[in-house]
Amino acid sequence: MTRKNLAKDFGFFLIVALIVIVSVFPFYYAIITSFKTGTSLFEVDYFPTSLDLANYIEVLSSQNFVRSIFNSVLIASVTVAFAMFLAVTASYALARVRFRGRSTLLLTILGVSMFPQIAVLAGLFELIRFMGVFNTPWAMILSYTIFTLPFTVWVLTTFMRDLPMEIEEAAIVDGAKPWQIIAFVFLPLLWPALVTTGLLAFISAWNEFLFALTFTASDTQRTVPVAIAMLSGSSEFETPWGVIMAASVVVTVPLILLVLLFQRKIVAGLTAGGVKG
């Protein structure tokens, strides 16, 4: 290996290491801070100096926070289920069925995702009040599904277009109906794409703050981002930074575990269709 290649490899790994450090350090420092209490919170330490679990005990002993975790799991899971069902059926129509205005419809779906949340907040709030689902999990499920669908439909349509037509034609010759083709032919082939889009949709619903804050009015209906934000106002004299950091770690660890668990499927879903032979 020449010096030029060594320098190139060293530069590449140096950039990767820098990106990893910048990305991981905030969460690492949050973990360190979550074990601190009192005046030690304001001391800058880059390595753990103590393992005080008082902040975690306080967070997990709060019934409202535990209920918020349950709310987030329920809302994110139902949102992913609805979004995946609608996205798979819509992507099948957009990718495999020829009809007039198909490209225009697909571009319109993509354009909807470009609107910021605040731009549609007032109209969506009136819609939710009219439907009578304000301060219920269905308010978040409806709004999250609306904002998740454009991304999931666009991605799954791209993947479904890359599937060979011969597979579908063989299923039609065997007498398979459209629902059977989707369920027994396409879904197994789309599994990496489904995992990737589903996990990204779950993370988006889990971390969403604006709609969860606007469409809830009671502590029992709030999700974890709003519950963490409310912790900053739980003390009259000072902000409980240690408790907030402990709560942030508690709600972030499940996402990290999900990504590690499905990392192979995620990589396969992100790289599928990138190379054509």
Number of helices: 13
CATH fold-level name? MetI-like fold
What CATH architecture do you see? Orthogonal Bundle
Overall shape: it is globular
Approximate strand percentage: under 5%
The level 1 CATH classification is Mainly Alpha
Sheet having the most strands: none
H/E topology pattern: HHHHHHHHHHHHH
Structural class assignment: mainly alpha
Your description of this structure?
With 277 residues, this protein is an all-alpha fold. It has one domain (53-271): Orthogonal Bundle (MetI-like fold), CATH 1.10.3720. Helix content is 74%, strand content 0%. The chain contains 13 helices and no strands. The protein has helices spanning 3-34, 54-60, 63-96, 102-112, 117-131, 137-161, 165-173, 178-189, 191-207, 210-214, 224-231, 241-261, 263-271. The longest helix is centred in the N-terminal third of the chain and has 34 residues, at 63-96. The chain is globular, with a radius of gyration of 23 Å. The two termini are 31 Å apart. The model is unreliable at 273-277 (pLDDT under 50).
Topology:
Elements: H1 3-34, H2 54-60, H3 63-96, H4 102-112, H5 117-131, H6 137-161, H7 165-173, H8 178-189, H9 191-207, H10 210-214, H11 224-231, H12 241-261, H13 263-271
Helix pairs in contact: 1-12, 2-12, 3-6, 3-9, 4-6, 6-9, 7-8, 9-13, 11-12
